């Protein structure tokens, strides 16, 4: 029997074992396939991220450099204040012919014949028209400079800037480009003399909007975005957290709260332009708040961010184990104490993550700002959130539509600034989360 | 948390109150994206020349949106000026009147040329309204009958045109530029090619005759661009055979990438547009609320500064940017009309 039994045992075990082997192989293969898909998905994601970053950075890094021309400017009294009236009429210093000072300095520097008007005009076109207000500010701040000769670093015109950075094709016919051959020759001589050079562009951070690319910056937009983010944070975090604590911990579960929950989930998916329409109708037309003000923008963005924060906060509150609540209540804590002493601290990391996601979303919005007048050309810095200002993504949008070549690099430069702003916000969130994180 | 909630509510209320209380000391302008670059230059220079006044805030968003905002009413919480790349419509004037904006001053600032351009690497292009009409209209006349546009290549339209597929990037229907394109190119081409007579024979209603003339084909050969000229430029960069519609100033800023087409044998330039030789141009305007003059600080000075020769004259920064200056007599008339307080 044993001789018989062993072959039968072999025969019977072999197919069973091989059946099991086939199953394991298939499952392993499925797992490998899934891993491959997952890896592929991440690889595609990373690839597009790399392409995006590359295209932005490769186009935008030059925006952080600006060509400048340092000229010895003679603040001659003859030009600024020919009748010596500045003591009695301070307006004289505002209306003086400052461009003439630049022209004279350039004529001297390049050794031109002042009688050849078209040639001199071409030379003065190399310096930004913002030189006028720059020189005026110097004189108004300190009228004792009149009569002295001081080296002043002036911005080069955007076309010269683009040409110096190699962004204008100088091989095409002269008539079809913005920089003329003579200007290129002067540019090269001035560069050799060290008068014209590239330096770090602080202006892109500090200037307001301008029609001259070389004098345009994201200063006003940065300040506007900062105002809005602060107000959105101050308004939406307490309101959102309070609403979700009430809904999650205190509110009775009935049809009304179900309806509210459905509505909040729907609001989170409403296109942002709808909030802009609402802001225009309620805040501007009904309450009479000023147009283009960061405060109105912040209110609109708060409305937009609230559903996101409420949903994230409720999820974070739900994730706190019921045993914590039971233990607190069992030890005699009131409902209120349970929530604020035990549940809320544990839910804090989740709430902060939700808030930061909401804020980052709000930071990148332009559509709701269009209708309340924040997609605008704003030169003056807003002293308060009630004054007209604009926002970072708006500035990117407006620069992207400009005709001048120099705005191409500035658009990408502004995107880099926006990304850095976002990275700092997320970094703050991570730090806060680390601080509040508790384990049980 | 209760206290927090309360402070938040108080903040909202106080901010709203402050909004009502604060008086506006800054001019607010909205409207056409075609006028925007010019208005920006003027606003910036205005701010530099008059240190007592703040630099005006200029919103973009299109002529229609700007005029709609303009006609919301009178008062500090409404805009002072609407930029427009077309004349205000009667319906808009009615809407303004209904909202209490009864005194509107019209200011013409000059003319804007509309050019056709293709990639810089292409051969010279000589267009006529007739060519563009035949290439882009929805229905054209073949052997005396109206048929759906059969042309696929420019060379089929006219032997002088390149042997390339028709691809035209034209302003979308929400653009003020579209109207000029329809009137000066399609309607003119419709007439020149003789199609108008056939349409007249087929349709009796005059409005329908016109809309048949300016209907653009929808089979993908003519692409509506709803964005700005930068989008048109990007389309031409990806399709070298494409022809795009641009503003003269935009073309001049990108002349190294684009080649401009002549229309009826005339090269577009500020000179040919000012003289009227180049056929496709339109006036640019802005509209001012007379009730705001004297209330909003600097408004009168801003308008006067805008219409001064140092801004809109032939050697002005606006002309340098691509605005076609109105003739001397007309500029003088514009200034006097504003001074006299003439209303629409």
TrEMBL record, chain A:
Domain ABC transmembrane type-1: 222-428
Gene Ontology molecular function: any one: phosphate transmembrane transporter activity
Keyword Transport: yes
GO terms for biological process, alphabetical: phosphate ion transmembrane transport
A Pfam family of this chain: BPD_transp_1
Spans through the membrane: 36-57, 226-247, 267-287, 293-317, 338-363, 413-432
Protein name: Phosphate transport system permease protein PstA
Family: Belongs to the binding-protein-dependent transport system permease family. CysTW subfamily.
Cellular location(s): Cell inner membrane; Cell membrane
Annotated InterPro entries: DUF3333, MetI-like, MetI-like_sf, Phosphate_PstA
Species in which this protein is naturally found: Sinorhizobium medicae
Lineage per the UniProt record: Bacteria, Pseudomonadati, Pseudomonadota, Alphaproteobacteria, Hyphomicrobiales
Topology of this chain in the membrane: Multi-pass membrane protein
Keywords assigned: Cell membrane, Membrane, Transmembrane, Transmembrane helix, Transport
UniProtKB/TrEMBL annotation, chain B:
Entry-linked Pfam families: PBP_like_2
Superkingdom in the source lineage: Bacteria
Lineage start: Bacteria, Pseudomonadati, Pseudomonadota, Alphaproteobacteria, Hyphomicrobiales
The name this protein goes by in its record: Phosphonate ABC transporter substrate-binding protein
Key words, A-Z: Signal
Magnesium recorded as keyword: no
All copies of domain PBP, residue ranges: 19-309
Signal peptide span: 1-18
